[in-house]
Amino acid sequence: MSDIASAPRPASLPALDSVGLGAMIASVLAIAWSPILIRFADVAPAAAAFWRLVFSLPVLFVWAEAERRRAGRHSMASLLTRPGLLAASLAGVAFAGDLAFYHAALPLTSVANASFISNLAPVASVVAGFVLLRDRIRPAVLAALAIALVGVAITSGAHRTGLTMGKGDLLALGAALAYAFYLVALRVARNTRLAADASLVSTVVAAFGLIAIVLVEGGTFLPQSPQGWAVVIGLGLICQVLGQGLSAVGIGRLPAGVVAIILLSHPVLSAVIAYFVFGEALSLDQLVGGILILAAVMMTRINMK
């Protein structure tokens, strides 16, 4: 993993970086397992998120140490320099906020609304990158992003039920904005840090933030069975180490618009996994929306070769 993460980021990205693209796709495949594994968890939602971060830390630490040594940074002091530390820390705060808002939104709004609104995060990150980081956005990427967004709306069912903005919807919007800020902050951190360093710092900060959320939320904190422990360990290794770790690699090597489009495919992949694991039939909406999102991903690949 350190080989691909420590490669220098090119000054300009006229074509898609194959390593970054592979890392981003693998990241989304790993993150797509999150709602599947959470179904088997026997702890409160925020507690599951906390344990997910805790069990990822040992692996992230080893990865970060190996990556620093390969890059010729033999001291932990490389982890304590600005501005990368500040950006990675802010990414951690934003990630904890995303989890807190999303978990609070679920009981107060429809699944369709929560799914659609929270998936506005990648789109918001593109806008933020354009405004704050002066990112150039190609017309082909904008077109693909629009197609992907339509696909998400169809997949979630928001086009059938309509989109109202109640308290739960506002919380879901807060989750989307928090995750968008996480993506932008992680990009800034990746400009000055190695991928594993950025992931390690943001995960530590997010874990501390989730402690406060767990105390407020209450509920079962410790897993109650061997299966429960296996689930939270799986969340840590699959969804956090592979998912968020590889996304840090991809974010550092790909344009924001391409990252956003790939991230929008995550709900579709979760639905496909649920079909095989739980036998949940894929609806026509999910199939049509999934095809549109995958077509958008292919559009970016073809137009940026």
Automatic annotation (TrEMBL):
Chain segments annotated as transmembrane: 19-38, 44-64, 85-105, 111-133, 140-158, 170-188, 200-222, 228-251, 258-278, 284-302
UniProt keyword list: Membrane, Transmembrane, Transmembrane helix
SUPFAM superfamilies with a match to the protein in the record: Multidrug resistance efflux transporter EmrE (SSF103481)
InterPro entries associated with the record: EamA_dom, EmrE-like
Domain EamA: 20-156, 167-300
Gene Ontology cellular-component annotations: membrane
A Pfam match: EamA
PANTHER family attached to this UniProt entry: ACYL-MALONYL CONDENSING ENZYME-RELATED (PTHR22911), EAMA DOMAIN-CONTAINING PROTEIN (PTHR22911:SF76)
Record protein name field: EamA/RhaT family transporter
